[in-house]
Amino acid sequence: MRAPLDPDMFDPLCPSELMPMRIGDKWAGMVIRCLEHGPRRFSELRVPIRGVTAKALTKSLRGLERDGLVSRTAHTGRVEYDLTPLGRSLLHPLAVMCAWAQDHWEELIDAREAQTAAATA
Amino acid sequence: MRAPLDPDMFDPLCPSELMPMRIGDKWAGMVIRCLEHGPRRFSELRVPIRGVTAKALTKSLRGLERDGLVSRTAHTGRVEYDLTPLGRSLLHPLAVMCAWAQDHWEELIDAREAQTAAATA
DNA sequence: CAGTATCCAGGAAGATACTG
DNA sequence: CAGTATCTTCCTGGATACTG
């Protein structure tokens, strides 16, 4: 819960850009994973979700709020984001997606390379 | 296999626009479902996938091809698209996503309405 | 039939600067 | 700290017309 988020939890070595499945917008899946073990503050989220601007993260969070997946609570002097029960119910589909990615990542990469090779030839 | 695709299989009553999960781009999930029971031709796909322009469908198909999820075969005088084994392996995650949507659709709609009401007030 | 070509409008997202 | 405001660029995607 209170452990800080690992700055490398979305290391570029796991290039989610290539993922053919997605939850919400570009950042929403990462936000959900960050909230998996308890509430987090805005600037906490910015650490592992590298390269996200305040604007983009705000928009993603607003979208998740609008869909009832994430709650925003303003305490005195700080703001916390947390998963709602509905958001938490997404963890299972998300896990299935991640499992698929692990199982088929090689094939995915190979297919892309074959395609690139064919295009170059 | 040979049965024509139901033109209403993606009826607006199932507004996939609201779906917070997605496979590939805007149309890819629908393409995959269309190919579930066997190969289809370009213009067959355009029937249930309403409102897709040739350009958008082409782009979606090219993306799926590039990722090795769909194969394109030019027979004499016709072109057929089919799922590859890799593409077929996506059917399970896709089913999980659809099951989630069925289970939580009400909550999702309610959350949106509550949000809209709050914004209006 | 199965696309390609061209034009255009709207949204996504980065950079940067600023605020209660 | 938790954003908002502005500007700009990129990209998506729709409309339309055309082609082998």
Automatic annotation (TrEMBL), chains A, B:
PROSITE patterns reported for this sequence = HTH_HXLR
Q: Report keywords, A-Z.
A: DNA-binding, Transcription, Transcription regulation
Q: Does the keyword Transcription apply?
A: yes
Output this protein's name: HTH hxlR-type domain-containing protein
Identify the PANTHER family for this entry. TRANSCRIPTIONAL REGULATOR, MARR FAMILY (PTHR33204), TRANSCRIPTIONAL REGULATORY PROTEIN (PTHR33204:SF39)
Keyword Transcription in record: yes
**Gene Ontology molecular function, alphabetical:** DNA binding
Q: Which Pfam families match?
A: HxlR
Annotated signal peptide: none
Q: What InterPro entries does this protein's entry cite?
A: HTH_HxlR (IPR002577), WH-like_DNA-bd_sf (IPR036388), WH_DNA-bd_sf (IPR036390)
Q: What range(s) does the HTH hxlR-type domain occupy?
A: 14-109
